[in-house]
Amino acid sequence: MNVKDLCYIYESLNQDIVELKQTKNRIPATREYSETLKKSITLEIEKFENLKSMILDLEVEVPAADTYEKLSSDSADSSFYCMP
């Protein structure tokens, strides 16, 4: 896995966390299922936060100089920045 894939995953996790927090805030407090649902969403948010921490804790291997030159030339290609 390369760094750009990890960045994509990290940003996806951030977006999911934002959306889950918005959803959690829209749950009406007057429903009998509200607290259970909020706890479930909170657990999912915590899981995503833990995944983000795991990504940030990964060590990145710095490529050799010749590999860096290859990557630099690839960066001119717009497909280099495309993420799945």
List keywords for this structure.
69% helix; mainly alpha; 84 residues; single chain
Protein architecture, described:
The chain is mostly helical and 84 residues long. The chain has one domain. Helix content is 69%, strand content 0%. It is built from 3 helices and no strands.
In short:
Helix content is 69%, strand content 0%.
What is the subunit arrangement here?
Answer: single chain
Count of discrete domains: 1
Query: How many strand segments?
Result: 0
The largest sheet, given as strand count, sense and whether it forms a barrel, is: none
Count of helical regions: 3
Order of helices and strands: HHH
**Into which percentage range does the β-strand content fall?**
under 5%
| Mean pLDDT level | 84
Measure the end-to-end span: 13 Å
What characteristic shape results from the CA principal axes? elongated
Helix content: 55-70%
Question: SS-based structural class?
Answer: mainly alpha
Whole-number radius of gyration?
19 Å
Extract low-pLDDT stretches.
Answer: none
Give the helices and strands, then pairings.
Elements: H1 3-26, H2 34-57, H3 65-74
